[in-house]
Amino acid sequence: MKKIKAIILLPLAVVLMFSSCTIYTKSIAGTSVQTQIHFKMEDLEYIGDVSGTATQSFLFGVLPIGGRRFHVANVGGGGLIPNDRMTNNALYDALMQREDADFVLPLSSSSVRDQMFLGNRTTLTVRAKAFRIKSK
Prior knowledge:
Layout: H1 2-18, E1 24-27, E2 44-59, E3 63-65, E4 71-74, H2 85-97, E5 103-116, E6 119-133
Parallel strand pairs: 1-4
Antiparallel strand pairs: 2-3, 2-6, 5-6
């Protein structure tokens, strides 16, 4: 009876031990096209440019292969950029360069796609200007 319990519990213990993961998330406020914020340049402190690059391979053009998982970034502002693994990796790298930024403007992206047999490799670069609101 003890052998049967051990045979059942051992695979369960192994699955539980290897099923944990860590997810890294970075969020920052952004603006959509309709938003109006009345800031003067005197109210803002320019921190610097941020940029991030990610390379992702895709099988049949849709199935991601490789790349980092569980690095998520969100800039808000209406979801103008799709949330796929490659975009999340590039945005996460960019936003982690200036962790003290209050928001980024404008967000631009460029990509290079290399077509290969049964798939492709895409490199995405995102760029933005990082600002911090001055405290009085």
